[in-house]
Amino acid sequence: MFRKALTIALLLFAGAAHAQQAGQAQMQAAREICAPDIQKLCPGISPGGGRLKACIREHASEFSKPCTDAMKNARAARNP
Q1: Which residue has the higher pLDDT, 40 or 3?
Q2: Structural domain boundaries of the chain?
Q3: How many Å apart are CA 27 and CA 9, to the nearest integer?
Q4: d(C-alpha 42, C-alpha 23), whole Å
């Protein structure tokens, strides 16, 4: 019984670790794809204190389609 529970726990952990890595890869891709849009729409705003996130939300409708698609993919990968 213990062996079965341990096996299930290890499989769940491995799945969670894989999902986290996929989420990180999608997030990195979104950063790279969205960098030009962020520089154009939020110039001079540095990360921290929610300032950049607020700017991104404020200008959400102005981001390019590749950027919005990348952000959606990153969000989906983080919250499977």
Answers
A1: 40
A2: 2-78
A3: 27
A4: 24
